[in-house]
Amino acid sequence: MTKLVIPALAATILVSAWSAVSFSPASRAHQATPAAPAVIASEVLGRATPAVADHAELALGRVTIMPGAEIPIHYHAGAQIGAVVQGELTYTVFSGEIAWHRGDHPDAAPTIIEPGQTVVVRVGDALIESPGSVHQGRNDGDEPLVIYLSTLFPADAPRAILVDATPTP
């Protein structure tokens, strides 16, 4: 009988020890923790040296333009960077110059959009709008257009200042 009790007791101890380790909260937490991502990508979508603004406000925003809609002709009191993340932006410059960073040529110098030019800005592209540059955007596509905006404006400045303008030929 003693010969049967010792192996049975040893088996019970091993099963109990395995259960304590395998089913302890710390062990379950470790098993539930997802593995770290294999790759992290960080990229600059556009950069500029902005004009100095007294009492500046730095903001990050998102604008969604539905198909067929357009933003009125306007300018900004400070610097703005816009990155297209969905859809296509038909973009016209009326005055000033806008730097266009192309997502399909990330290492190239930006293209300068001059007054009278209209371009189509695609996903991955970014626009650098300097203070006072008059421009307009519209969605000529068939899906919503989404743009992330980073702005450095004087505090309490409006997000956009509307103007009447026509493109220069």
- Level-2 CATH architecture of the largest domain: Sandwich
Mean pLDDT: 80
The string of secondary-structure elements, in order, is: HHEEEEEEEEEEE
| CATH class label of the largest domain | Mainly Beta
Structural class: alpha+beta
Q: Helix coverage percent of residues?
A: 10-25%
What's the name of the CATH homologous superfamily of the largest domain?
Answer: Jelly Rolls
Shape: globular
Enter the CATH topology name of the largest domain: Jelly Rolls
The strands making up the biggest β-sheet line up spatially as 1-10-3-8-5-6
Share in β-strands: 25-35%
By DSSP (H or I, 4+ residues per run), the number of helices equals 2
Rg, alpha carbons: 29 Å
What profile does the largest beta sheet have? Answer: 6 strands, antiparallel
Number of domains: 2
Span of the ends, CA to CA: 106 Å
Q: Which consecutive residue ranges, at least 5 long each, have pLDDT under 50?
A: 1-29
Beta strand count: 11
Q: How is this structure best described in words?
A:
- With 169 residues, this protein is of the alpha+beta class.
- It has two domains: 2-32; 56-162, Jelly Rolls.
- Helix content is 17%, strand content 35%.
- The chain has helices at residues 2-22, 25-32, and strands at 56-65, 74-75, 79-86, 89-95, 98-101, 111-113, 118-121, 126-129, 134-138, 145-154, 161-162.
- The strands form three sheets. The protein has a six-stranded antiparallel sheet with strand order 1-10-3-8-5-6, with no helix packed on it. Strands 7-4-9 form a three-stranded antiparallel sheet, with no helix packed on it.
- The longest helix has 21 residues, at 2-22.
- The protein is globular.
- It starts with a helix and ends in a 7-residue tail after the last strand.
- The model is unreliable at 1-29 (pLDDT under 50).
